[in-house]
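FORM 12-B: Structure-to-Sequence Request
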């Protein structure tokens, strides 16, 4: 439940505290009251963010790139992407409301990618590559957790087969993802990537024909198959 009901027994009990007892109760519970206020404030904020994301998704799904505008599109993209990139996966996993908002951020970026695929996919590609190197060089466990978390957001990108220029963008992104997949380490990252590849490739398989003969696409698929075979030969 996001908000506390003022009609709860606790609230009713407080309302019947006699005047002489009020200062002592307030003083003794001031820290708890501040904590409750902080929790309620955070829940209210999370609820508002969730509602805003739902509204934005509805708008983005029907608006054109031109109608959205380059400045607004770029700003919206940046805010939502950074929210996912900077999230602490460990904290988010323990908080259902925060996890729900992260899902909405990913859905919103997916909707944006339908009209801004190149810029949205480039953000993911660049950050995944950077996180991949950090995971290898620094705190491996934390770096892999963050990279795996970011990868999960990729599955909502809208890949296109037509027109040809759109498919070239799709092939380029899958090639980048395949390269990262091939060099991935750690069970959490490899698991996230394998789970993400299914929904991504399914979008293309459903409608592609001769397009799959594109050399960039073919090379990417070969990398994915090679990595998949090597993973099947040994535990994650």
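FORM 12-B RESPONSE
SEQUENCE OUT:
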């Amino acid at each position: 439940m996001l908000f506390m009901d003022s009609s709860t027994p606790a609230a009713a009990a407080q309302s019947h505290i006699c005047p002489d007892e009020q200062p002592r109760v307030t003083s003794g519970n001031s820290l708890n009251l501040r904590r409750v206020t902080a929790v309620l404030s955070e829940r209210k904020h999370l609820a508002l963010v969730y509602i805003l994301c739902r509204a934005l998704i509805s708008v983005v799904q029907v608006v054109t790139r031109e109608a959205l505008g380059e400045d607004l599109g770029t700003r919206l993209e940046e805010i939502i992407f950074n929210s996912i990139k900077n999230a602490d996966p460990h904290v988010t996993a323990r908080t259902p409301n925060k996890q729900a908002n992260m899902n909405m951020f990913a859905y919103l970026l997916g909707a944006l990618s339908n009209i801004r695929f190149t810029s949205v996919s480039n953000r993911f590609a660049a950050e995944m590559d950077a996180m991949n190197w950090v995971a290898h060089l620094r705190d491996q466990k934390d770096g892999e957790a963050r990279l795996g978390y970011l990868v999960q957001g990729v599955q909502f990108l809208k890949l296109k087969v037509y027109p040809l220029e759109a498919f070239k963008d799709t092939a380029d992104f899958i090639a980048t993802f395949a390269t990262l997949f091939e060099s991935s380490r750690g069970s959490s990252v490899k698991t996230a990537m394998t789970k993400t590849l299914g929904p991504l490739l399914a979008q293309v398989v459903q409608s592609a024909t001769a397009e799959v003969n594109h050399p960039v696409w073919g090379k990417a698929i070969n990398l994915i198959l090679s990595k998949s075979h090597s993973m099947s030969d040994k535990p994650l």
